Amino acid sequence: MKAILCRQYGPPESLEYADIPPEKPGEGQVLIDVYYAGVNFPDTLVILGRDQYKPTLPFSPGGEISGTIKAIGPGVKGFEIGDRVFAGTVWGGYREQVVARANNTFKMPDTMDYLTASVFLATYGTAIHCLIDKANCKAGETVAVLGAAGGVGTAVIQVAKALGARVIACASTQEKLDYCKANGADELLNYREVDLKKTLKTLTDGKGVDIMCDPVGSDYSEPALRATAWKGRFMVLGFTAGLIAKIPLNLPLLKGNAIIGVFWSTFARRHPDENRKNVTRLLEMYEAGKLKPHVHKTFSLKDAPLALFEISNRKVKGKIALSLK
């Protein structure tokens, strides 16, 4: 079968489009015939050896897929050959067939197509874990999100609105902000044109933001934290800008707030039952029309390096996927 392989850590152009032998599912696993593979920012890090996960070389990147079940391993219940499913893989998704853990594999509702399913789990799973499990988001609270036009940002906007929150979308261009508005954001902020802290304070009548979601990092993190309210929650979701901010610890002391890390893939591995409850709730929101994943562009499996360049250059609104059928 065809696969994208990382034989040595490096940039996207170092990846290889290759033939590999088929695999068989082991205990607690299913084999999925892949239709689409979602592309996410962590995929750009894992091939560089900069991600928290460092799979044994050679490996395929790719943290989420959709397709049909081809084979079922020992001990797996609740699935049948031919079931339409999507699954989280952390890595290994950029190949024609993928072995996935059954406890992080989910049946697609009849209303969901394969493309949508392939870009659903990682970002929306992150958003609901962030807002409900970690931030305890309540209706009427204000949620702000940096990098709001990206995959995680889009998911945070939509999930927060579904929970009854007011959402301030923060992004770097007017085009991205227009996209955020179309996805439900109540207020828009271009953090390259205005002072992030002062503007967030103004938009909240001086109170500050209840929940600040930061998947960007770098120089934006500290002013975003300074813009949180008393007992606010600052959610660390990633570092797409490339730099990890150093935060003065007097800030959470003076504000009585919390800095909280959100690492969905590890949560899903450690707490599969809780993760399944979250995904069930997400699918209910989706079927109610409250969640609408946006696919910016699709690429062939062979062109996976081009897809990763798009993600790295931060030009993507929503998600990108690889088509394998």
Kindly describe this structure.
Helices cover 30% and strands 26% of the residues. The protein has eleven helices and 15 strands. The strands form three sheets. Strands 3, 4, 5, 6, 7, 14 and 15 form a seven-stranded mixed beta sheet that branches. Strands 10-9-8-11-12-13 form a six-stranded parallel beta sheet, with helices on both faces. β14 (295-300), α11 and β15 (319-323) form a beta-alpha-beta unit.
Features:
325 residues, 7-stranded mixed β-sheet, 11 helices, alpha/beta, single chain, 6-stranded parallel β-sheet
Number of strands: 15
For the largest beta-sheet, the strand count, sense and barrel status come to: 7 strands, mixed
Helicity, in percent?
A: 25-40%
Give the terminus-to-terminus CA distance: 13 Å
Mean pLDDT figure:
96
Query: Which stretches are low in confidence, meaning pLDDT under 50 for 5 or more residues running?
Result: none
Beta-strand percent range: 25-35%
SSE pattern: EEEHEEEEHHEHEHEHEHEHEHHEHE
Give the structural class.
alpha/beta
Helix run count: 11
Gyration radius from CA atoms, angstroms: 19 Å
Shape type: globular
In short:
The protein is built from eleven helices and 15 strands. By secondary structure, it is of the alpha/beta class. The mean pLDDT is 96.
Task: Break the fold down into its secondary structure elements and pairings.
Elements: E1 2-5, E2 16-19, E3 29-39, H1 41-46, E4 64-72, E5 84-88, E6 97-101, E7 105-107, H2 114-118, H3 121-134, E8 142-145, H4 151-162, E9 166-171, H5 174-182, E10 187-190, H6 196-203, E11 209-214, H7 221-226, E12 228-236, H8 250-255, E13 258-261, H9 264-270, H10 272-287, E14 295-300, H11 304-312, E15 319-323
Parallel strand pairs: 8-9, 8-11, 9-10, 11-12, 12-13, 14-15
Antiparallel strand pairs: 1-2, 3-4, 3-6, 3-15, 4-5, 5-7
